[in-house]
Amino acid sequence: MQFKAVIVDDEQPICDEIEYLLKKHPNITVEKKFNHCFDALAYITENKPDVLFLDIKMPGISGLDMAKKLSALSKPPLIVFITAFQEHALEAFNTPAIGYITKPVTEEKLTSIIQKIRNLLARDHPKQPHQSNKICVIDNGKILPLNKQDIILASVSERDVYIRTIHQQYTCNLSFKEIETILSDENFLRVHRQYIVNLDDIVEIIPWFHGSFVLRMEGNQQENIPVSRTKVKLLKQLMGLK
Question: pTM to 2 decimals?
């Protein structure tokens, strides 16, 4: 299920940082960023995003005033306040906000609130048809449905997407983002912008430069799969490393 988000903060670098962190969550799409509440109000009223990340202290209309105006909509977005001042959080409880994040915004803070967003929005969206447990790949012009659990690795190179099993590598017509979404409910992790790995098929975790790792996978132990530094902590948690 895809959720649409809008970010409003008068500091552009903060807007950009929140967008960067949200991109790590494949089912949330940032549709627009604003530095003023006036423009944001018009856009939200017309386009009806699901979620709004909103700075409280804004020039002109404050974030608190904007939230009160949005509450008059037939379907207002879920609002997450962003604030540099802990005391403003108390004011947020007089609005329809679902929570707040104090600056600086971090991946850990966002992940916690995003889980709450997912739970709230899931109640308002009808259930999707059951998704197949297979991904279709191309082999000599034929379309082969592969079981997800048979996939060891997915990778992308110059927009070409590849799916690897223990026996063979295939091409796939889906985008890498679509592959990530399909595998998000399984035992897979995007460890790098070019690689998604099956955690059950990791055979070696090798310490690398600057506190990172490279992985070696079942069926192809000669190739080093890099782990981005931003994913090291999560990988260690999932693999039970201290």
Answer: 0.52
- Structural domains in the chain, CATH included, are 3-124 (3.40.50.2300), 135-238 (2.40.50.1020)
Render pLDDT for 67-96 as a digit per residue (tens, 0 to 9): 888 888 888 899 999 888 665 554 555 566
75: tokens are: 């379907």
Which residue did the predictor score with more confidence, 200 or 185? 200
